[in-house]
Amino acid sequence: MTFADFKDAAGAMRDSVVQWRRHLHEHPELSFHESETAQFVEDTLVSFGGLEITRPTPTSVLARLVTGRPGPVLAMRADMDALPITEATGLLFASTAKGVMHACGHDGHTATMLGAVQQLVGMREQLVGEIRFIFQHAEEVYPGGAEEMVQRGVMDGVTRVIGAHLWAQLDVGTVGLVEGATMAAPDTFWITVRGKGGHGGIPQQTVDPVLVGAHVVTNLQSIVSRAVDPLDPAVVSVTQFHAGTTHNVIPETAELNGTVRTFDPELRTRIPQLMERIIRGVTEAHGATYAFTYERGYRPVINDVTVTREMQEIVEAACGPNVAVPMRPTMTGEDFSAFQQKAPGNFFFIGIRNEARGIVHPHHHPRFDIDESALETGVKIFVQAARHFNGVR
Ligand code: NI
Fold first, then answer.
1. d(CA 271, CA 277)
2. Whole-prediction pTM
3. Active-site residue (options: 29, 34, 130, 139)
4. Helix, strand, coil fractions of the chain, as percent rounded to 5
5. What is the mean pLDDT of each run of 10 residues along the chain (393 residues)?
6. How many angstroms separate the alpha carbon of residue 336 from the centre of ligand 1?
7. Active site residue 81
8. Which of 81, 140, 148, 376 is catalytic?
């Protein structure tokens, strides 16, 4: 292969990955409903040849590249679901599904992984062991698709697992690596404050759940500021407060809802206990009662130290020096953690931000977009990871 041929091959790869991404972007599907997406992925994988392809669940796809030579089993994961958001990007390939949008970049994850599979199928003779490609459904909605796929055995025998997220906070051309605690455990809570409704002008006959609820919100903020070690990351956010119907009626109840984010398992257990103590105390002080429901979400993403250091080498080999940058952990959540229960792994972040081109909107925003050159970066890293961990020595 001459250099010119190589450049043509790289160009063709880039073109197909961008086309796949745009096709997926135009046809987004919500979590657990990724039927056409999964079919598109399966058909594309079949066209590559040489893979063992199965459907662990109705809308997920597993492809195995079995070399027939003994060696480790490397799993790579891409998630495929979209969000209930009305797209406002004005892109030529904007969503054609009403109220549904790939606003988190999972279209790019899927396309990137397809690009990596295509390359690696052609490199079979240079590889040992097995490369397993996990096209996961339903990352956005708890209990998530990852846990379901793990239960169906997709991680059986896997020695290492890697995955990536296109990342709006990172400039295109950079790749963020985090060692250890990487993404938080996202838990959800619901609080009902029950007072006694009545006339807005006769408050003495009521127990006002709006006032009591406001005290609850304020007092919950003392958990992170006063009951948690300042060096331990934690978030308690009340994100919804619904009460009342009109200006002259004190309502019977107030409904509060929000999220708690932690890394530390002990803290994750302690925060709901502290919350309930405050809710109980505040409501009782005002003669109100409460109901409190706390639901645990995904486990935190904890990156294996050894695999992360190897990823640093991999990114350098694939993209050159100065591309890998150390990144701070994020308090967002990810069900990639389910795969990490079965094998040591790394979840890394590929920069997509390009201010000059106006690509600045955060994930889950109606104008979220990606700099598509990040897709090629992703393909190169996944291919290099396979060569690094599963290359013929
Ligand atoms: Ni996402």
1. 10
2. 0.92
3. 139
4. 35, 30, 35
5. 60 91 98 98 98 98 98 98 98 98 98 98 97 98 96 98 98 98 98 98 98 98 98 97 98 98 97 98 98 98 98 98 96 97 98 98 98 97 98 90
6. 10
7. yes
8. 81
